[in-house]
Amino acid sequence: MVGAVTDTERLTLRQQQKQQTRAALLDAARRLFVERGYAAVTVDDVTSEVGCSRATFYLHFNGKPDVLRRIGAETTQQRAVSVYADLDAVLASGSRDRFTEWLRRALHWFEANRDILPVWDEAVALEPSFRPIATAAVAELPAAMPRYLQRWGASRGDEARLRVGLLVTQLERFFTRWAVQGTLDTSDTDPAETLTDIWYPALLPPEERHSAEQA
Fold first, then answer.
1. Please, what's the largest Cα pairwise distance for the chain?
2. What are the pLDDT digits (tens) for 154-192?
3. Start and end of every HTH tetR-type domain (predicted)?
């Protein structure tokens, strides 16, 4: 029969509808989290925004922590893990100037995602089930830097990963106080240059750092 819809076409339409619903739930959850904060938003709030049932929400997500995890993985402007994969290449180049440029790009990443970062922090503080998600997300960052880890060697791998974690923490806090709260005045300095002075040598293995200091 001309114009009949095949089973394959029906399946494709259902898949498209599911994908559209999932995207709408992510968009609504992100918008509500940013407007109200993580704790104030319920699953019912999200489904009401989209016009679907709780059952539909749970077809796609396990709960609020899961939807926030997927927001971080799918809706941020450039995933954080790719920012640190970029850092791996920069450190391998041995160029201090390239490191400074990387810091500027990293701060731009924070600016692009500044609305969701406080939500993530709130969820870590208030939602015990979200903490393992946040821990895994931070662990992904040094894992995206295999050349950096190789230069430190297996015996110092934990220290190398800790240094990346400390860098992430300082960049987050610096950006919050500088660009969000406005409580840190950098009007007479270039933050990227100052951060380079601190972090470029700190990320070098000791023998490379000593060689650079003697050069």
1. 82
2. 999 999 999 999 999 999 999 999 998 999 999 888 999
3. 19-79
The Cα 151–Cα 141 span in angstroms is 16
Please report, as a single letter, which amino acid is at residue 36: R
In a 3-state reduction of DSSP, which class is residue 40? coil
Q: CB-based contacts of 53: which residues, under 8 Å, 6+ apart?
A: 47
The two three-digit tokens of residue 20, written as one number: 């559209």
Comparing CA positions, the residue from 89, 96, 95 lying closest to residue 198 is 96
CB 159 within 8 A of CB 152: yes
